[in-house]
Amino acid sequence: MAASVLSILHNKLCGILGKLNLFFLIPTTLALFTCLFIIFYITFTSNLFFQLYPHSPPFNSTLTKPTTFTFTQALHSGTNNQHLNKENTENRSEVFHDRDIFVESYKDMNRSLKIYVYPHRKDDPFANVLLPVNFAPGGNYASESYFKKVLVKSHFVTKIPSEADFFFMPFSIARLRHDARVGITGLPEFISRYIFNISHNYPYWNRTGGADHFYAACHSVGKIAMQKASEVKFNAIQVVCSSSYFVSSYVPHKDASLPQIWPRQGDPPNLTPYNR
Ligand SMILES: *[C@@H]1O[C@H](CO)[C@@H](O)[C@H](O)[C@H]1NC(C)=O
Ligand SMILES: *[C@@H]1O[C@H](CO)[C@@H](O)[C@H](O)[C@H]1NC(C)=O
Ligand SMILES: *[C@@H]1O[C@H](CO)[C@@H](O)[C@H](O)[C@H]1NC(C)=O
Ligand SMILES: *[C@@H]1O[C@H](CO)[C@@H](O)[C@H](O)[C@H]1NC(C)=O
Ligand SMILES: *[C@@H]1O[C@H](CO)[C@@H](O)[C@H](O)[C@H]1NC(C)=O
């Protein structure tokens, strides 16, 4: 752009000087040479002319590029290869900045990830905290209930534990808190008994020490709940409505944060975010 503007300017300037040349030969010849010299000088000293703007390809034109690094491979190379050298680690970190690899991994995850939800009967005395609620969740801790409602209906759920990648423990901390039989003070005991039950009735907890198990909790008492079950806190994946990395009991390398929503009835407020 700048180059073409300058070259038009140059042509005009030199053209005018060329016509004047007929009448004022010597001064205009000098002017012409000066004109050319200035342009010559500028082109060789300024990066204005030589700045190369690489033509960025359209965002999705690279999708045809073969992507061989998939989620499952990442998972396996991450867990099985214990002797990662620095170079590999650095290269793998680039994977997370590559849109195509991300999309492929996402599709792979969507296709292959399987979750086993510990089953509980409708007549279980704690069915109210273990099964998804059959009404629209509301209030501060609604995300916790929505998470379970949506998860159990999703295509990720499998009834065959042997094909599961993860195991979901469906207790609801928020509902236990309001259950007169448990309450806040009874939470640690309940969770401890729950882990005792699943680790004695099923082989999966012991296999990994709970590392492939997860639960969701939106209430801050979740951290009290694990007081008598430190193996949950240190091994299992805690999907929590954490507003901060620094809350105690949140372990960044394995836990995940769940956005907290507060569903409200009626029309959304007609206000821009700054005016709410
Ligand atoms: C991406 O691909 C789609 C479908 O092939 C095409 O319609 C769209 O224009 C492309 N977008 C860009 C930014 O190239
Ligand atoms: C990635 O690996 C290649 C060899 O496979 C190496 O040449 C390159 O330097 C590595 N890149 C980084 C950022 O480590
Ligand atoms: C994930 O998989 C489901 C079931 O196969 C499919 O309905 C859905 O569209 C997929 N989602 C994405 C984002 O690919
Ligand atoms: C543990 O199992 C026992 C016996 O089946 C049952 O009575 C109890 O409610 C269970 N407790 C929890 C917290 O799952
Ligand atoms: C799991 O480990 C505990 C403690 O070591 C043990 O008591 C229990 O029997 C084991 N569960 C199974 C299903 O083997």
Notes on the protein architecture:
The chain has helices spanning 2-21, 25-45, 71-80, 86-95, 99-112, 127-130, 142-153, 173-177, 183-201, 204-208, 222-225, 230-235; strands at residues 115-117, 157-158, 166-168, 213-217, 237-240, 256-257. It has 276 residues and is α/β, with parallel strands linked by helices. The chain has 3 domains: 1-54; 56-112, no CATH class; 113-276, no CATH class. It starts with a helix and ends in a 19-residue tail after the last strand.
Kindly state the percentage of residues in helix. 40-55%
Low-confidence stretches: 1-6, 47-72, 74-87
The assigned structural class equals: alpha/beta
The helix-strand sequence is: HHHHHEHHEEHHHEHHEE
State the strand order across the main sheet.
2-1-3-4-5-6
Report the major sheet.
Answer: 6 strands, parallel
Strand-residue proportion: 5-15%
Name every ligand kind in the structure.
2-acetamido-2-deoxy-beta-D-glucopyranose
N- to C-terminal distance: 45 Å
* Total of helices: 12
What integer value in Å does the Rg equal? 33 Å
Using DSSP, what is the number of strands? 6
Principal-axis shape equals elongated
Counted up, domains total 3
pLDDT average, as an integer?
A: 77
